[in-house]
Write a structure and sequence with these properties.
The structure holds two protein chains of two kinds. By secondary structure, chain A is an alpha+beta fold. Chain A contains twelve helices and ten strands. The chains are: A alpha+beta, B alpha/beta.
């Protein structure tokens, strides 16, 4: 099992100015439209996003995701149960909401898309409505539906040009990269093109078999849809149900532990998590920024847990469970880290790296 | 027969379904239990069970059908079970059934752990 905490640490540093990042590397299913919206809503609990902006971003997210569902081609992956559909990603940076996607299309569809994008981007924002109505009236609907109406809506609602790029993909297909940027209150300001960065992330996630990457608030509102996404993915893949359930259990323990121990000065619990699969193993990695005191506590506890075998961990859990009833603070059971250690099929890895304000980034990797 | 209002809670995305009936001596918890604040969810159930055990030594069946639960829920489930274990009267009148899927090692192991810690009839029902 590769030790990949370095990648997680790198992701953390690269996105230090982005409080929310979500990237999902297929498979894309209709079922996930709502899950992605729920993850977005959960991710912004600590951000102050006003309802009108929230609704607009939600609309853009749904439209972008459903475009992939409608038009994306699926390529069988080299790894069974891990087919390649592309990538869907959103992030918040400053006051901008940025939605990137990568999916594969047939060459003839790419040609149609290219001319449609060129036309849409040549219009001034105020003229897009006319184009939309013209297109709606013509409605020589393509067999997949839409006739570019979705793309026009993305440009209209975001108030920005939609960035795009076409590149050769395996199997004679074409990669369609798209970026929708929404910066409330600003019209056509200079957009930062993130397509190269997202391509690099896609390659990294492909290379490391990462299914999902999330950075943001670890509120229960965000944890539950992430869990549902992982469970649904496991249930629909060839992975055994029991392994998927165990992964779900550990995921909840890790994320809730972070929510409890990782709060910043404002009491927000922000963290970073990746979920991947490698040679039949599920790999969970998570990290958050902790204080020096928490670092000492975690180091002592994790070094101890890491050297215990299965039977010793069982004994320790039993003892800790009995002891937990005597704790004055009913919110702390001391069981979470033991359960994470118990579920890991090989000893977990963890490390600390420097962060801002004399705090440090704690990262942990668990294999199931 | 004691007059304790029954508890009936529908399952939510992170809390289980609960049906506690003093009249029937039947306590059921089913689904998954992942609340962030397990204390808030379980304290009323623990208070209810304490009142029930103080007032009655009738035959009692606790059916636990959990898909899975987080560690803090585990702490409160254990507390609830110890209240049943410590109640006055004949302990054999309490029966705990721990329902679990045959391939769910994690929940089988959790059932075995609780069974080992308690001195009440505790059956692991494998489906």
């Amino acid at each position: 099992m590769p030790h990949r905490l370095k990648s997680l640490v790198k992701l953390h540093y690269e996105t230090i100015d982005q409080p929310v990042v979500f990237s999902y590397r297929g498979p894309f299913m209709e079922y996930f439209t709502n899950t992605i919206l729920e993850i977005f809503q959960g991710s912004i609990t600590a951000q102050q996003v006003i309802p009108t902006i929230n609704r607009k971003v939600s609309f853009l997210l749904v439209e972008c995701f459903q475009n992939i569902l409608k038009h994306g081609e699926v390529v069988a992956g080299s790894d069974p149960g891990f087919r390649d559909d592309g990538l869907f990603s959103f992030r918040i940076q400053g006051s901008s909401f940025i939605i990137n996607s990568i999916n594969m299309v047939q060459p003839e569809e790419a040609n149609g898309l290219r001319s449609m994008m060129e036309e849409i981007n040549s219009y001034e924002p105020q003229d897009l409505k006319a184009l939309y109505l013209k297109q709606l009236a013509n409605s020589a609907l393509s067999d997949k539906g839409g006739a570019g109406l979705g793309l026009i809506e993305l440009a209209r609602k975001s108030g920005q040009q939609v960035l795009y790029l076409f590149e050769d993909a395996p199997g004679g297909l074409v990669f369609f990269h798209q970026q929708v940027t929404f910066c409330p209150g600003k019209e056509r300001w200079e957009i930062v093109n993130r397509i190269d960065e997202i391509r690099a992330l896609y390659d990294q996630m492909n290379g490391e078999h990462t299914l999902l990457y999330y950075k943001g608030d670890f509120s229960q509102k965000a944890i539950i849809p992430i869990l549902e996404m992982v469970e649904h993915h496991m249930a629909s893949s060839s992975e055994a149900g029991a392994q998927g359930r165990k992964a779900g259990h550990v995921l909840v323990e890790i994320l809730q532990n972070i929510a409890k121990h990782g709060g910043d000065k404002q009491g927000r619990a922000e963290g970073i998590v990746t979920i991947g699969m490698y040679n039949g193993q599920i790999l969970l990695q998570a990290g958050n920024v902790v204080s020096e005191t928490e670092k000492e506590f975690l180091t002592e506890k994790l070094v101890y847990l890491r050297q215990l075998n299965h039977e010793e961990l069982k004994d320790l859990h039993r003892t800790a469970l009995k002891a937990s009833l005597k704790f004055e603070n009913k919110m702390k059971s001391g069981l979470g880290l033991i359960e994470i250690a118990q579920a890991s099929t090989i000893p977990f890895n963890f490390e600390f790296n420097p962060s801002v304000d004399n705090r440090c980034l704690f990262t942990i990797q668990v294999s199931i | 027969m004691i007059h304790l209002q029954p508890i009936e809670l529908k399952a939510t995305e992170d809390t289980p379904e609960v049906r506690f009936s003093a009249a029937d001596g039947l306590l059921v918890i089913s689904g998954r239990s992942l609340p962030e604040n397990a204390w808030q969810f379980y304290q009323p159930l623990i208070d209810w069970t304490r009142a029930y055990c103080a007032a009655s030594a009738q035959e009692t069946l606790l059916e636990l059908k959990l898909d899975y639960f987080n560690s803090s829920s585990g702490r409160f489930l254990f507390e609830l079970l110890t209240i049943l274990e410590n109640r006055a009267g004949d302990k054999s009148k309490v029966q705990v059934n721990w329902h679990v899927d045959h391939d769910d090692e994690l929940m089988i192991e959790k059932g075995q752990e609780l069974k080992g810690l308690l001195e009440i009839p505790f059956r692991i029902v494998i489906q």
